[in-house]
Amino acid sequence: MIFNKQTARQTAKVLLQINAIKLQPNDPFTWASGWKSPIYCDNRVILSYPPVRNYIREEMSKFIEEHYGKPDVIAGVATGAIGIGMLVAEYLGLPFIYVRPEAKGHGRKNQIEGHIESGQNVVVIEDLISTGKSSLNAVKALKEANVNVKGMVAIFSYGFEVAKNNFENEDLTLHTLSNYENLLTEAASSNYISEKEITTLSLWNANPSVWNAN
């Protein structure tokens, strides 16, 4: 669920401008999963552009305050959301932790890095939602630490049906600054892509695992 349409369009616009999101329907990318994709999203690029990162930080922070009040802690999902999560925590004046995909195999063997106490309220920050599995893995670790996960706030979601189902199954609320639908709307209105390319991009999003660029 997006914050609102205005924010979704503006976020899509700036992500396209700084090439955090690239659309190449005629020269698709290959994801780590092996999927062929006409889109690639790397939100780490945001950190290199102060006006953009400040915009993302402030929009996320204001939304969290409006919908959750002030939680006790902000948690980022490693590694992509550590930077933006820390910026949000700083803006809100809150402690910050981050959650690894799995516990370290050495030292203190932590999966959660930073100080958190049982019973505290946490809002989780994520940079990108695809299937949602890695994001929900972080939520599982937090719940096992006996903290109250209020919800998750992310920069962008591909809007896959599998992600929607995964979040519903875990009874967790997800809000995003922007999503695939609003990205296509913004890309089309700015002539970033053609009508034909919109059709290609829509077909991919409907069934990404079997999509073929040809």
How would you sum up this structure in a few lines?
The chain has helices at residues 5-17, 50-68, 82-92, 133-144, 161-169, 180-189, 195-206; strands at residues 21-23, 29-30, 36-37, 39-41, 73-77, 96-99, 112-113, 121-129, 148-157, 174-179.
Strand order of the largest sheet: 7-6-5-8-9-10
- Strand percentage: 15-25%
Give the overall shape, derived from the CA principal axes: globular
Number of helices: 7
The SS-based structural class is alpha/beta
Overall pLDDT score = 93
Uncertain residue segments: none
DSSP helix fraction: 40-55%
Strand-and-helix sequence, N→C? Answer: HEEEEHEHEEEHEHEHH
Distance between the termini: 32 Å
Question: How many strands, what sense, and barrel or not for the largest sheet?
Answer: 6 strands, mixed
Cα gyration radius (Å): 17 Å
What's the count of strands?
10
Structure notes:
The chain is α/β, with parallel strands linked by helices. Helix content is 40%, strand content 21%. The chain has helices spanning 5-17, 50-68, 82-92, 133-144, 161-169, 180-189, 195-206, and strands at residues 21-23, 29-30, 36-37, 39-41, 73-77, 96-99, 112-113, 121-129, 148-157, 174-179. A six-stranded mixed beta sheet has the order 7-6-5-8-9-10, sandwiched between helices. It has a two-stranded antiparallel ribbon with strand order 1-4. Helix 1 packs across helix 6 (180-189). The radius of gyration is 17 Å and the shape is globular. The model has no long low-confidence stretch (mean pLDDT 93).
